[in-house]
């Protein structure tokens, strides 16, 4: 990127900040004026997921649009904190810049690394040092937000625990744990204790996340793919039954099963 491109990008960034300020001004947009960081939280998550979907779809135009949407919401949140006198956008940017420089001594310092694994190990050491300096409690698990999709959080927790050797020796070993959790779930169901059933379902899903990780599969992405296939097949089944002049709600389970099998048969062909 040359100097002209950089200057143009900076102007557009400044313009977007100006739009955020204008919309939330006393004579701006009534909706924007009512927003708070708490009310905007759900939009931060939605825009982040929409960006992730655009990346998955390998659609550069959609990625550019969703990046813009996310930038806007992030600037909006920063503006509200700045207006309240809590911190400035400049302080937030300076903080992350310093953090990235501090955590990349192999780029900005004289530390030498030979692999991504060494970079990751150094990163954890630096984070532990930062926690000690700030007198904060440190765990090898780090901080994974509870708002993460539960399956993804379970996957990442297992990943982090494995860095210090707390892990299964291989995927085959997890099968015994999966079988054990399945049996405990059956017992809980037989006992009729709903809380115990929920507990055992959680344990079983956590074990499945470990199995997926050791097989090199992200369980969140695998489940999303399955959900997407289910949607496509279900909609195809609806269309297929609709061609007979019937509605899905008026069809028997046997009719839906036949249509579902027909849809899967077409996929195989």
Bin the strand percentage: under 5%
Classify the secondary structure makeup into a structural class: mainly alpha
CATH class of the largest domain: Mainly Alpha
CATH-derived topology of the largest domain: Helix Hairpins
Count of β-strands: 0
What is the correct CATH architecture of the largest domain?
Orthogonal Bundle
- How many separate helices? 12
- What is the helix content? over 70%
The separation of the N and C termini measures: 48 Å
Q: Biggest β-sheet: count, sense, barrel? A: none
Query: What spatial form do the alpha-carbon principal axes imply?
Result: extended
Radius of gyration from the CA trace?
Answer: 25 Å
Quick tags:
single chain, 269 residues, mainly alpha, Helix Hairpins, 4 domains, 12 helices, 0% strand
Ordered list of secondary-structure elements with their pairings:
Layout (H helix, E strand, L loop, with lengths): L2 H21 L6 H4 L3 H20 L3 H24 L5 H14 L2 H4 L7 H18 L16 H13 L8 H21 L2 H21 L4 H24 L10 H16 L1
Helix pairs in contact: 1-4, 3-4, 8-10, 9-10, 11-12
How would you characterize the overall build of this protein?
The chain has 269 residues and is an all-alpha fold. The protein folds into four domains: 3-101, MazG-like (Helix Hairpins, Orthogonal Bundle); 106-133, no CATH class; 150-217, Helix Hairpins, CATH 1.10.287.1080; 221-268. It contains twelve helices and no strands. The longest helix has 24 residues, at 60-83. The model has no long low-confidence stretch (mean pLDDT 93).
